[in-house]
């Protein structure tokens, strides 16, 4: 039987870190299923899901823990099965002048409606004309069936007006814009 192992990694960025993780996973017979890896402020940060035979999970964990001698902090968790919940996917795109609290405010609205953030990518860059900081966010969302997309859209539109950002919410069957 296979089991999922989820690990988080953080440490000083240097060439070969992904290779070191992959080599240890391979040595335990694990399969690299999915990951999110990035260099942020000179640090390597990542989340990886590996799949391994249940009988080799302890071996995999031991091999991954050896990365700590190379300066990486490693957290390892056994994956769990998600309950079968019907949901539909949506995509949220946001752009506007940067200010503290944008992610907090958007995530509060989504959580209030029971919408889960499956993936979130954010960046801050200079606006092309003014040079002012511009915040961008892209979120993959899971809407439980029974949650009215129009209700979430209405709350997000009101918030987009307050934050003075442009926000697009795309459902499987189309899109709606706010801003």
What does this structure look like?
Pfam families: ACT (PF01842), ACT_6 (PF13740). This is Glycine cleavage system protein R. Residues 91-170 form the ACT domain. It comes from Thauera humireducens. This protein is flat. The chain contains four helices and nine strands. A hairpin with a 6-residue loop joins strand 6 and strand 7 (133-144). It folds into two domains: 2-78, ACT domain (Alpha-Beta Plaits); 87-178, ACT domain (Alpha-Beta Plaits). With 179 residues, the protein is of the alpha+beta class. Helix content is 26%, strand content 47%.
Broad shape: flat
For the biggest β-sheet, the strand order reads 6-7-5-8-9
Alpha-carbon Rg, integer: 20 Å
Distance between the termini: 49 Å
Taken together, the total number of domains comes to: 2
Please tally the β strands and state the result. Answer: 9
Q: What is the CATH topology assignment of the largest domain?
A: Alpha-Beta Plaits
Write down the CATH class of the largest domain: Alpha Beta
The assigned structural class equals alpha+beta
Q: What are the low-pLDDT stretches, counting only 5+ consecutive residues below 50? A: none
Overall helicity? 25-40%
Tally of helical segments = 4
**Largest sheet descriptor:** 5 strands, antiparallel
GO biological process, one term: regulation of DNA-templated transcription
Domain ACT: 91-170
Organism: Thauera humireducens
Protein name: Glycine cleavage system protein R
């Amino acid at each position: 039987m296979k089991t999922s192992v989820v690990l988080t990694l953080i440490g000083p960025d240097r060439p070969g870190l992904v290779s070191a993780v992959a080599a240890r996973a391979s040595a335990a017979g694990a399969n690299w299923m999915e990951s999110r890896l990035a260099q942020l402020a000179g640090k390597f940060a990542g989340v990886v899901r590996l799949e391994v035979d249940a009988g080799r999970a302890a071996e995999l964990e031991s091999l991954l823990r050896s990365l700590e001698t190379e300066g990486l902090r490693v957290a390892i968790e056994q994956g769990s099965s998600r309950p079968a919940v019907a949901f539909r996917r949506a995509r949220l795109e946001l752009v506007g002048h940067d200010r503290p609290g944008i992610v907090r405010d958007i995530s509060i609205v989504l959580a209030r409606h029971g919408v889960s953030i499956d993936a979130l990518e954010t960046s801050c860059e200079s606006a092309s004309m003014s040079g002012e900081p511009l915040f961008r966010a892209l979120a993959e969302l899971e809407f439980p069936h029974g949650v009215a997309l129009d209700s979430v859209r209405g709350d997000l539109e009101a918030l987009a007006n307050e934050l003075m950002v442009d926000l697009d919410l795309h459902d499987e069957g189309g899109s709606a814009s706010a801003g």
